[in-house]
């Protein structure tokens, strides 16, 4: 059974391999300094980034979700951006990803947010099969400029 709970300072050793797996999945690199900064932000109650960890049988960490809130021009209440979602390869398809999304959705309701939204790669078929069941595909195309010098 998957359990979801907010990250605490004692979760760093369980979170770190998941974080590295997430970065590796996206074939990217994040410095140790940025990893430390991200971890500290996740635990800082004054910072608008939040995190939760998923545990499976025996309490083993199997996934995480990170989200942030921001003001919006189209809403009096904030939006919630689900920035990072990761579930270990051996537990994909078990409901852990769905539970992590549900956790963020419930948090958004409790904090009077207007909506929850996120992005993923077009080629991320496993995740997209879940996303297509729990959310509405908006049809927007993502663009970015960066990294900034």
UniProtKB/TrEMBL annotation:
It comes from the Bacteria. Residues 2-149 form the N-acetyltransferase domain. The keyword Acyltransferase applies. Keywords: Acyltransferase, Transferase. The keyword Ribosomal protein does not apply. It holds the Pfam family Acetyltransf_1. This is GNAT family N-acetyltransferase. The lineage of its organism: Bacteria, Bacillati, Actinomycetota, Actinomycetes, Micrococcales.
């Amino acid at each position: 059974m998957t359990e979801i709970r907010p990250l605490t300072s004692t979760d760093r050793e369980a979170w770190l391999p998941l974080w590295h797996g997430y970065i590796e999945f996206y074939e990217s690199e994040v410095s140790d300094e940025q990893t430390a900064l991200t971890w500290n932000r996740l635990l800082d109650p004054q910072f608008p980034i939040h995190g939760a960890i998923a545990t499976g049988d025996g309490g083993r960490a199997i996934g995480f979700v990170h989200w942030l809130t921001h003001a919006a021009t189209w809403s009096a209440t904030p939006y919630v951006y689900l920035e990072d979602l990761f579930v270990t390869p051996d537990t994909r398809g078990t409901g852990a990803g769905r539970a992590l999304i549900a956790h963020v959705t419930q948090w958004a309701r409790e904090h009077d947010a207007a909506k929850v939204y996120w992005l993923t790669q077009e080629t991320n078929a496993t995740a997209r099969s879940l996303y297509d069941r729990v959310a509405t595909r908006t049809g927007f195309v993502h663009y970015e400029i960066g990294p900034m010098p």
